[in-house]
Amino acid sequence: MADFDKLKDAMGDLEEDDVLEMLEKVMEDGGSQAGEAMKACQEGMNIVGERFASQEYFVSDLIFSGELMTEAMDIIRPALLSQSSEKVGKMILCTVEGDLHDIGKNIVKAMLEASGFDVVDMGIDVPAAEIVKKAKEEGIHIIGLSGVLTLAIDSMKATIEAFKEAGLREDVKIVIGGAPVTDKVCELVGADAWAINPADTIRTCREWSGSAA
Ligand code: B12
Q1: Which of 101, 113, 117, 143 to mutate to test the pocket of ligand 1 (most atoms within 8 A of CB)?
Q2: Which residues of the chain have pLDDT under 50?
Q3: 107 and 182 share a domain?
Q4: Cβ of 49 less than 6 Å from ligand 1
Q5: pLDDT per residue as tens digits for the range 38-96
Q6: Which of 81, 106, 126 lies at the terminal end of a domain, its last residue?
Q7: Are 98 and 69 found together in one domain?
Q8: What does the alpha-carbon distance between residue 198 and residue 205 come to, in Å, rounded to a whole number?
Q9: What is the pTM of this model?
Q10: Angle, CA of 137, 204 and 96, to the nearest 5°
Q11: Which of helix, strand or coil describes residue 121?
């Protein structure tokens, strides 16, 4: 049984060797506890964020934490993905304008693809108008917006407004996610749903595409 508190702390302390070693151990049985390990790593990233906010860590530590989280996910990703051969639909996923964070988005993308979605990944810092244009061009009805900065909330709102202005709001379902997103934020920006983890995102998007979770 892995010690997930230890894993969380090692991630928060940016102890690369310890994190990677613990994750290799988690994978020894094929990764039956990979979900818990991901959660612990994410909580460890919250510690990094708190230490950055209190000026104990610097931007270089944030950058390093991003690299470490990416390495960590590379180890456990195979166990998180239960591959579906069924094709359930196409959707857009991106990080909204002004926000360059993409680790969470990339995790969500990998899991959506594994569950059968054809994900059009528009990348990071994507302006509202481009998202609307892409949805229109490709006839896509499910949109996932990611953002971890507080300012991402404004960009999410602007994106939803842009769909309204284009007369397309009723044609799309929009799910938002990322660290600052809550039910209140969902209501404020006018999204259809929000999710904090990939499993909930998949459930919501599969419901919208007409496939049971
Ligand atoms: C790593 C990191 C970085 C890396 C990002 C690397 C990368 N490629 O993404 C780098 C170094 C680039 C970075 C830069 C900056 N960062 Co930064 N960063 C972080 C940190 C430590 C971790 C983020 C992360 O990857 N978490 C792990 C992932 C797995 O979690 P997640 O993103 O929440 O994703 C999960 C869920 O939210 C959900 N999800 C995610 N997306 C979606 C989408 C949908 C549709 C759904 C349904 C669900 C969903 O599923 C995911 C998996 O479970 C956070 C701290 C934190 N607590 O988040 C700060 C943090 C977000 N950063 C912060 C800041 C201030 C910055 C900078 C401004 C620093 C600077 N002075 O330059 C810049 C901003 C650049 C910009 N314009 O975006 C602040 C934001 C403050 C705020 N309230 O706005 C934070 C909160 C740190 C802090 N406490 O001060 N950062």
Answers
A1: 101
A2: 212-213
A3: yes
A4: yes
A5: 999 999 999 999 999 999 999 999 999 999 999 999 999 888 876 666 788 899 999 99
A6: 81
A7: no
A8: 10
A9: 0.93
A10: 50
A11: strand
